[in-house]
Amino acid sequence: MNPYLSIIIPAWNEASTIPCTLQHLLNQSDFIRGAGMSFEIIVVDDGSVDNTYEAAWPWVDKLVKHDRRRGKGAAMQSGVAKARGDLLLFLDADLQDTAGEALVLIEPLLRREADMAIAKLPPSTAKAGFGLVKGMARRGIHRLSGYKTEAPLSGQRAVRADRLRELGGFAHGFGVEVALTIDAVRHGLRIVELDVPITHRETGRDWHGCVHRGKQFAEVGLTLLTRWKGRKQVWLSSDRSSI
Predict the structure, then answer these.
(1) 174, 170, 167: which is closest to 212 by C-alpha?
(2) In 3D, which of 63, 58, 117 has the Cα closest to residue 87?
(3) What is the dihedral angle through the alpha carbons of 201, 33, 162, 222, rounded to the nearest 10 degrees?
(4) How crowded is residue 236: how many other Cβ atoms within 10 Å of its Cβ?
(5) How far is CA 156 from CA 46, 51, 193, in A?
(6) pLDDT-based confidence at 81, cuts 50/70/90?
């Protein structure tokens, strides 16, 4: 039986970008069907206060709306609950005219060479952050799983649905991708990282950008602490069982 692809897009206040993102995904319909796949597009509006829901509606197969903002992890979980696909492709809502490039991520899964594929985005051409969050996330993933990643914060990733179900639920907030990578390695998923020419909106070094990165730093740090405590509990349980 041919595989079925579910494209899941969590969105919060993306009315200005999501129609372009969805249109460029739909422009790749022939490519997807040429690979022998059927597909669906699922958007989860995570409590937006703009017209994200209305802007997405004409372009999608399934549309979910949270009554309040619950976080990216919860939005991803709601999307998975509605998905029928054997393969899941998670994308950010603001990729716009580069969204179709992300479909290359499903190729290693189709060839059974990987269980999860993560996009490595090109270096930013503008002054954005200072690399503190990315560096902490990269080091934390390596310390807690042994996996060396070049894209610790990438939200563009494809994964086999059956293997994803083995991991349980998603982490909350900005730590969702970090936790997903750690959990995937711990459960034995084969991961590849691919260079993909995707671009999306980046925060600058203004006050808003600093606040955003400060919150991201705190939530990624909390995620790493939670995963470290989880590993410690496993060690303690193993020690007790050997007594």
Answers:
(1) 174
(2) 117
(3) 0
(4) 10
(5) 18, 23, 10
(6) very high
| Predicted pLDDT of residue 161 | 97
Phi/psi for 227 (5° steps) reads: -70, -35
Phi, psi dihedrals of residue 118, rounded to the nearest 5°: -120, 135
Please, which residues have CB within 8 angstroms of residue 23's CB and are 6 or more apart in sequence?
Answer: 59
Provide the residue count of the chain: 243
Quote the CA–CA distance of 183 and 144 in Å, as a whole number.
10
Reading phi first (left if > 0) and then psi (alpha if -120 to 50, else beta), residue 13 is in: left
Site of tokens 């993102």: 21
Q: Pick the range with the lowest mean pLDDT from 111-115, 214-218, 236-240.
A: 236-240
User: Cα dihedral sign for 24, 25, 26, 32?
Assistant: positive
- How are strands ordered across the β-sheet holding 157-160? 62-65, 38-45, 4-11, 87-90, 157-160, 116-120, 191-195
Distance of CA 114 to the CA centre of its chain: 16
How far CA 112 is from CA of 2, 74, 101, 105, in Å, comes to: 14, 28, 20, 12
